[in-house]
Amino acid sequence: MQTQVSLDTHSGKIEGSYDPKFSTVYQAFVDNFTHHDEVGASCVVNLEGKTLVDLWGGRKARDGAPWTRDTISVVFSSTKGAMALCAHLLADRGQLDLDAPITRYWPEFGVGGKEDSRVSMTLDHTVGVPHVRIPLKAGGFWDYEYMVKRVADEPAFWSPGTRQGYHAITMAWTVGELIRRASGRRLGPFFADEVARPLNLDFWIGLPEANETRVASMIMAEPDQAWLDTKFIKTALNTTDTPTALFMRDFAAFDANSRACRAAEVGSANGMANARALAGLYAPLANGGTLNGVRLVGRETLSRMGRVSAATGEDATLMIPTRFALGYMKSTDNRRIPATVNSSLLMTEAAFGHVGAGGSLGFADPECALSFGYSMNRMGTGVLLNSRGQALVDATYRTLGYRTNAGGVWTH
Prior knowledge:
Elements: E1 3-9, E2 12-18, H1 23-35, E3 40-47, E4 50-58, E5 73-74, H2 79-92, H3 119-123, H4 144-153, H5 171-183, H6 187-199, H7 225-228, H8 231-238, H9 243-252, H10 259-263, E6 272-273, H11 275-282, E7 290-291, E8 294-295, H12 299-306, E9 310-312, E10 322-324, E11 352-355, E12 361-365, E13 370-376, H13 387-399
Antiparallel strand pairs: 1-2, 2-4, 3-4, 3-13, 5-6, 7-8, 9-10, 11-12, 12-13
Helix pairs in contact: 1-13, 2-5, 2-12, 8-9
């Protein structure tokens, strides 16, 4: 029996339902509004394919319209998990070889030191084109063909495969174009046809204009001194052509609240979704690759999706230790690293998923058949998960009997 929710807070009404066993998740969700300045958000927990928590509430903007059950927002890099799934789906079907040279599918990419790069390197952030050095034309992010050419022509920042640096925005085209070359379809339609519709997900990479009325605008993070003192920010402000500085340059030009952004196809950064869609995306992956008659991938592919593919003591873009599977973040504990803020993501070792700028998150945990989604419109500082999202994850794992994350992953 689900507990139904209708609670008024100073930020607006919280609604939905939850299994009483997950009352601590509900309490953490409410606490985000009452004590941590949440404006609008949603949170969903699925276990063995069943929805046990489905909460939403607050407002689409400060003093704005209510955040309702069908409200969606940009989930920034949480989109990467959806894009990576499309690549793995093609690999599972034998249409895309992750170990093959990129030039097998995309000959134009093989220039500027990228001649020997492999498909898998586009998924684990080692391919060496985290950004393009010369500034883009106005509206460049929304011009798919323009961006494909810019990324293909860009000389490598390092020899592919020898270093790891987060490809914050360019991953949209390094991976997205390989999906197009392998399948004959652009990422947006491919994802809609092969993933979103079969799973009944309210998840869009290229939002139809008819859905604009459901969108919550993003509220940018307000930098505090702790954030300004991080190595990431200091590197961004005191260098020019480093991946860190170029990330900040490009993110500042990425107007996520514009219709042009929402309508475009940027598989690394502009997916429109909510927690229900994020948790639903990962639900089959938490349950062997197939759920309710919808098969996404087989167990061999699923096993590869969750394995660490690349890890580094200092990511060339994010300036922190990072751990990645092929297209997905793994549990990463940077709580004891000096000069960092909100730079960790604490799950189990088996879990894999992706954080989005400001704090959204979707992930699968095959160890306990868990899938999880969180979306919000008030962005936090930091480069990984902030305390609002982590509190929801922590409450979920505690409910499932996990005792501690002191070692960097949740364990029993």
